[in-house]
Every structure is written in C-alpha cells, then in structure tokens.
Amino acid sequence: MDVDFPLWLRAQHLLNFVLMGMLIRSGVEMLSSLPRLWWRKDCAPGTEWLRFTRRELPKEEGVYTSLMDEKSVHPLLSLPGRENIGLGRHWHGLSVMFWVLNGVVYVGLLFATGLWRRIVPTSWDVFPEAWDSLTTYLSLDVPDLSHFSPYDSLQMLGYTFVIFVLAPFQMLTGIAMSPAIRSRFPWYVKMWGGHQGARSLHFIGLVLFSGFIVMHVSLVFLVHREHNVVNMVFGGGEVTTARAAQALVIMVSTVVAVVAFWIFLSYWSLADRVRAQRFTAGFTEVGRRVFLNRLRPLGARKRAYTDEDISEFHWTNGLPPTQEESAVWVQARDNDWEGLTVTVRDDINDVERQLTLHDLRALPQHSYIATHTCMQGWSATSRWTGVRLTDLMGVLGPRPEGARYLMAESYGLAQKMYDNRPREPFYACIDLETMAEEESILAYERNGHPVDVHLGGPARVRVESNHGYKHVKWVARVMWIHDYADYGDGRGGTREDSALQAFNGRI
C-alpha cells in the first residue's frame, strides 16, 4: 500500500486539531457555568456524581441560584473565560458546525480514495496483534517499524473507535441537550437518561477525546518520531536526519501557532464581547435555521413524559423581586396576590388590558409535562398549567398589523449585566411561530399547585422549545411588538443583553 499521506488528509488533520482545541476550551467554559454533573433528572443538591467546586449547596429550593454557582476560568484555559457562558456556547456551536463538516468530508474522502483500509480493520487478526502492541508499550518498548503500514493494529483500533464511535457519540449526546430536539423527540432524550444523562455522557466523551489526544501526540514524538514528523508534514518520502529536523521545526511551530490562535480567540472575544456575540451567533444561527427551527413540539401527541418523571427538586436562576425592584409585586405577594395584574398590550397601537389572576384562570386552560433546561446545564421536569399565549393575546382581538414578535416583561430585574451597568427589567422576545406552539403558555400552576414564588409566581412564561432564559418569571406584561431591536439593547431579551446569549434559544 502507498504509505504517502495526501495533502487533503494532512490539511484536515490540522483543521481537526484547531477545531478540537476550540471545542474543548469552549466546553470548559460551559462546564464552569455549572461545575456539577448529575445522573438524576432533577439535579438535587448533594446528588452530583462529579463536581469541580468546593461549594456546598443548600437543600432548600429558591435560596441559591445557578448563577451563584458559576466559576471564573482564566482565558488561557477556556474560550473565552471569565464567566462568559453565552460566548462560550456560541464558540462551541461554531466549532461543532465546522468540526462536523470537516469530519463528513474526511470520512467521505477516506472511502472515496480507499484510504479507509488503513484505519478500519478488515481481519480479526487485528485484535491479537493489537494486544501484542499494547504489551510492548506497557513493557516500555517500541514496536518495530515494520509493524506500521502506516499504522499498527493498536492504532487502527484506536482510530476506528475515535472516528466511527466516539465522534458520532459526541454528536448524538450533544443534540440530546437541545430543547428543540427534546420537545419534538422526547423519547430520544430519555434514551440517553434525560438531559442530565446526555450531559454526563457528553462530558465522559470529552474526557476520552482529551485522553486520546494526549496519548496520540505523545506517541508521535516517542515512537519512530522521524518517520512520523516527515509523514505528517511532507506526506511521506525519504526519511533523513535533515528532513526530519526540518519537519519537526515546522510541526512544533505549527502547534505553537495553533495554541496562540486559541488564546487569541479568548482575548479577542473579551476585548469586545458584543462584537464577538454578533460574529459567533451569526454563524450558529445558520445551523439553527437549517436543523432546528423546523422542529415544533409534539404537544398533545407527546407520550414520553408522565407524572412519574416529575422532579423532586427544581433549581432557579434569579431571585424574586425585592421592594426596591417592584414594590407593587412585593405588596401583592404579601396580600395573597390581591390587586396584582398582568398587562396584555398592543405596543404598536397603544392598546392594553389588565388581567387579574382570576381573569387568567377564566381563559382556556392548557396543561402538559415538560423538562425545563437552563443554558447553564441544570434541568427539572414539571407539569405546567396555564393559558396558551395565543389565547392570552386573543383578549385584545386579532393580531395587529405589523406585529412580528411577542415580548414578555418581568416585575423583576436582571441578576447582573455583563458590563456592570444598572440592571434592566427582565424581558424576553419570541417570534410568532414559537408563540403559536402548543407548549408556549403563561403558567400559573406547577404540579397542580400555584407556581412557587421562587419559580416565577404568580405567573410565568413557558416556551418549551427554548432554553429557560426565554421563560420570563414574575410576568408583569406581555405585548405585541414590531421589532425587538427597539427594546433593551436590541438583541431580543435580557439574557441576550446581559449574558450575550442567542435570540434563538432552541439549543
């Protein structure tokens, strides 16, 4: 067999190295926003199977938010670092898109050129031969060069596992954490053990990938280094001392340049986080439009979740309004919600109505079971009951001409703003197709009881095809608007303004 390594193979190998580094670094940023892993679906305190923090969680609901658990990682280690979960998610999504595309092209060319025979075993003899190679390495010896044509049996098994098993495993567990996938294919997410099962398995895949990379790079320099570097840089040919030295210099310089590029991305992002958000979210929105936006919740057809799936514990992100934030809300809370209203408004034509909780309950009721996921990683399953957003806005009559989005605003404020300016009233906007989904409601009950205060009572928005930052708590008003660019920072919501999340919260 021709042992030359064609240019396309070497180029894709380098690109994969760049993208894997971006994936791992942005993955570290995402994990640092909630440095705990569970197998349980409710993320109850003290039930983690792994954590990267010394903080002990209180057992009581509503006194500790997930943002309080966030850890800051240095930009040298994560992308971008310093508690920027929104940008971390954007960089992860962008890297995934190019990594998958690179992988599809790579596998396609492997089979088109016949080079797959170098990687995929075609004989059962590969297993005893791989065992011989392993015992040789464990004895701190090196297999003879004749064992590599161009890979030995142990390498073949390792490459086959990583390319055809581990990489697809990461893709499959990754999409299982998307609320758009969960609301459309709930059985698929349950197959992985729910959101937390998929998240934990995805982390284990990350560890395996990282271990493979360390082992792979180490063996390049420890086992027949001269041949390895010549093949990887020049694609093969004569192996001489001078040529190997030249290849080694090029390889080390390339690795240094790639590491510098990873670090540059972090500091470039932190230098102007709004610019970085526009750049990365613009790319990732292409993927959402192609693969996720067409997926609509099953609604009444959903049978995967039952009352047995309801979680015992429910995290929260954000604390109820204080006296300084909303004296009206606090006074109503202390008076059993007497006098509290939700404003339903047409902000285009300046028309509105005030609805009491009694008025809300008089509207057509809708109930379902769904899993709530926060963009930080926690989840909880509940039965939500309330009025569909389409019925809620129907109290104003037909949708006004020019209305393109629905905006919900809270009595409470954002927890913090990324640039440390005064906190704004919490709000979120959704498009009309998302609003019309069967599982987009204004909820006033959870698990058959009034919505808990710390979870958004007396009324909160539920948009099950999106992550939790679209589910406005302590709702003050819901209104038709023409363009979300006219509100806040013009990004479509407080979490988009304060944490630079994407307007489209489907993944």
Word description of this protein:
The protein has helices at residues 7-32, 85-113, 116-119, 126-138, 153-175, 179-184, 186-191, 194-222, 225-234, 241-271, 273-291, 327-333, 357-362, 389-393, 432-435, 494-498, and strands at residues 36-37, 50-51, 341-346, 351-356, 366-373, 379-388, 405-413, 425-431, 440-446, 449-450, 460-463, 475-481. It is an alpha+beta fold and 507 residues long. It folds into two domains: 9-52 and 67-290, no CATH class; 296-498, Sulfite Oxidase, Chain A, domain 2. The strands form three sheets. It has a five-stranded mixed sheet with strand order 4-3-12-7-8. Strands 5, 6, 9, 10 and 11 form a five-stranded antiparallel sheet that branches. Strands 1-2 form a two-stranded antiparallel sheet. Strand 9 and strand 10 form a beta hairpin. Helix 5 (153-175) packs antiparallel against helix 8 and helix 8 crosses helix 9. The two termini are 45 Å apart. The mean pLDDT is 93. This is Oxidoreductase. Keywords: Cell membrane, Membrane, Transmembrane, Transmembrane helix. It is found in: Cell membrane. Residues 336-480 form the Oxidoreductase molybdopterin-binding domain.
